[in-house]
């Protein structure tokens, strides 16, 4: 008995030792809401492997619960706490997102999003200042000697802290507005003939007019719409670093870009060796449901269930919209589990139950699940892909129309416009994805692609973070494009040089010709005279 115990103790010790031999310190600059849910999975895996993870968190976070005991450390940013303003900002955003953006065209919706992001710039700047200009805070971070920073670049500042601390950093994101960050800061090639620009909601096979739209959107994002107030941040970063620089230049120092999609979702496209596609890393096999919920699910019999969620951001809809949705749901033979915090709609059918919160992954993985009605957030879409569930998309803002466009192109979803839809539209969409077997088949095919990978996405994400820790970066994957100017990158200088050469050659040849012609002419005339 005793020796056995000893053996296990020694094995445990060895394991610990082996694990901790490579142990490092990770500093994290996160983003709130659904982004955090995804990042948290990576951070938990890192702590499990013995790394020390510290998260820089704003006191105004909504779902990053830094007061709960956790294996991670939380360093609260010393910014003036103002809960009410934060709540109001979020409410404003939710209102715009749920009620205003769906009524706008994609362009206008993108402009609205930019307007909102610009509005909160002042607050973001304050938050950033409270870290980088707080000497005791920076000294503390410096003295900890972090090995790597993991950054969500939705909100700026993380890369500035990394640069000041001289720590290599890894990005984690889905994609930026119009791919501008990846394209200009990460140097990711985006051939517009077959790579649809994000927020244009196009697929990879574009007609001529769609390619026109794609190019127009690309120009629109290059020159008009930006995720950040670039001028302000360029100045801020230059001041903080004490040398002229730009936000994009600092962002370009990212060692690895962990992209939250994979080839089940993406259209095949060129990418760089320091871009790793790790979509679906948060997906897990389903766990058993709570008892009450399981009973409800089982009561659906052969018909099965439909899962409905508009994500964590949308809490309530207008009465009219909620009633319209509820009356469509009441007409299907399936039972419906609807995550909804608003007032109970009057037309709610007996087959529909409202929940404040649902274990979405466990429900989607349930064998009785027939369809998923979703707003098209990346996390939810990936859970549906993982479990092979066809979708009805009701996208509202940001990347959601794009995500649904991808699923539509892969034959696993039907889209309904939440702004203009009638009860009948939603009902038809539901009937289509449930009754037409191709949707289920295509969703199952995506699921097989997600499951059949040489290395699981979470392991790849963690591998590259650890790689950066071990080797103090991943410079061998960094394309030399970062050191070129835009005209060198497109070889405009070489083309110009060759054109000048060609022009000179043509000029010289014509000159020579003319000269010899004249000469010949003259000698000819001379001869004639003689
Ligand atoms: C600087 O940060 C420390 C925490 O590291 C905090 O206690 C202090 O109040 C901050 N100073 C200012 C001026 O905000
Ligand atoms: C949602 O609820 C909030 C507060 O309960 C309310 O102010 C808002 O008008 C509601 N939104 C809609 C679209 O009904
Ligand atoms: C599927 O089709 C059958 C008949 O073809 C119909 O009775 C059923 O209601 C349809 N399913 C849904 C979800 O509408
Ligand atoms: C986009 C795509 O692959 N769609 C497929 C969905 O499934 C049907 C039937 O299996 C195929 O014919 C489609 O090509």
From TrEMBL:
<keyword id="KW-0808">Transferase</keyword>
<dbReference type="InterPro" id="IPR002213">
    <property type="entry name" value="UDP_glucos_trans"/>
</dbReference>
<protein>
    <recommendedName>
        <fullName>UDP-glucuronosyltransferase</fullName>
        <ecNumber>2.4.1.17</ecNumber>
    </recommendedName>
</protein>
<dbReference type="Pfam" id="PF00201">
    <property type="entry name" value="UDPGT"/>
</dbReference>
<keyword id="KW-0472">Membrane</keyword>
<keyword id="KW-1133">Transmembrane helix</keyword>
<keyword id="KW-0812">Transmembrane</keyword>
<dbReference type="InterPro" id="IPR050271">
    <property type="entry name" value="UDP-glycosyltransferase"/>
</dbReference>
<feature type="transmembrane region" description="Helical">
    <location>
        <begin position="494"/>
        <end position="517"/>
    </location>
</feature>
<feature type="signal peptide">
    <location>
        <begin position="1"/>
        <end position="23"/>
    </location>
</feature>
<keyword id="KW-0732">Signal</keyword>
<comment type="similarity">
    <text>Belongs to the UDP-glycosyltransferase family.</text>
</comment>
<keyword id="KW-0328">Glycosyltransferase</keyword>
<dbReference type="InterPro" id="IPR035595">
    <property type="entry name" value="UDP_glycos_trans_CS"/>
</dbReference>
């Amino acid at each position: 008995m005793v020796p056995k115990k000893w053996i296990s103790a020694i094995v445990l010790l060895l394991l610990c030792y082996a694990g901790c031999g490579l142990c490092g310190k990770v500093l994290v600059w996160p983003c709130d809401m659904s982004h955090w849910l995804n990042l948290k999975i990576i951070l938990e895996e890192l702590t499990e492997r013995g790394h020390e993870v510290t998260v820089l968190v704003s006191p105004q976070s909504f779902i990053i619960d830094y007061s709960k005991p956790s294996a991670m450390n939380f360093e609260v940013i010393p910014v003036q706490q103002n809960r009410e303003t934060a709540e109001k900002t979020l409410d404003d955003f939710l209102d715009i997102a749920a009620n205003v953006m769906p009524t706008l065209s994609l362009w206008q919706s993108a402009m609205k999003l930019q307007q909102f992001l610009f509005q909160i710039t002042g607050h973001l700047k304050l938050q950033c200042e409270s870290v980088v200009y707080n000497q005791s805070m920076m000294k503390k971070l410096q003295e900890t000697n972090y090995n790597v920073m993991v950054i969500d670049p939705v909100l700026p500042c993380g890369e500035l802290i990394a640069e000041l601390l001289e720590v290599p950093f890894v990005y984690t994101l889905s994609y930026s507005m119009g791919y501008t960050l990846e394209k200009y800061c990460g140097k990711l090639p985006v051939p517009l003939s077959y790579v649809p620009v994000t927020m244009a909601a196009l697929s990879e096979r574009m007609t001529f007019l769609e390619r026109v739209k794609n190019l127009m959107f690309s120009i629109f994002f290059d020159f008009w719409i930006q995720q950040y107030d670039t001028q302000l941040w360029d100045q801020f970063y230059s001041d903080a670093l004490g040398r002229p620089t730009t936000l994009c230049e600092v962002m370009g120092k990212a060692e690895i870009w962990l992209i939250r999609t994979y080839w089940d979702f993406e259209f095949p496209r060129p990418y760089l060796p320091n871009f790793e596609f790790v979509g679906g890393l948060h997906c897990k096999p389903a766990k058993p449901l709570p008892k009450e919920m399981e009973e409800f699910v089982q009561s659906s019999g052969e018909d099965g269930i439909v899962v409905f969620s508009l994500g964590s951001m949308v809490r309530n809809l207008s009465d009219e919209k909620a009633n319209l949705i509820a009356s469509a749901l009441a007409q299907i033979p399936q039972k419906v589990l609807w995550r909804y915090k608003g007032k109970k709609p009057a037309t709610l059918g007996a087959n529909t139950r409202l929940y404040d919160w649902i274990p979405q992954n466990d429900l989607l993985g349930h064998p009785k699940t027939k369809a998923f009605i979703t707003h098209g957030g990346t996390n939810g879409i990936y859970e549906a892909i993982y479990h092979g569930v066809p979708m009805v998309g009701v996208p509202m803002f940001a990347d959601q129309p794009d995500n649904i466009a991808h699923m539509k192109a892969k034959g696993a979803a039907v889209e309904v416009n939440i702004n203009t839809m009638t009860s009948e539209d939603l009902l038809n969409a539901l009937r289509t994805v449930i009754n037409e077997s191709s949707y289920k088949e295509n969703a199952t095919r995506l699921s097989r692609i997600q499951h059949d990978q040489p290395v699981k996405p979470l392991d790849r994400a963690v591998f590259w973070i650890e790689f950066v820790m071990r080797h103090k970066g991943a410079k061998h994957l960094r394309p030399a494009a970062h050191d070129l100017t835009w005209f060198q990158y497109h070889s405009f200088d070489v083309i110009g040089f060759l054109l000048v050469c060609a022009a000179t050659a043509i000029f010289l040849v014509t000159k020579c010709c003319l000269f010899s012609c004249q000469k010949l002419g003259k000698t000819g005339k001379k001869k004639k005279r003689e």
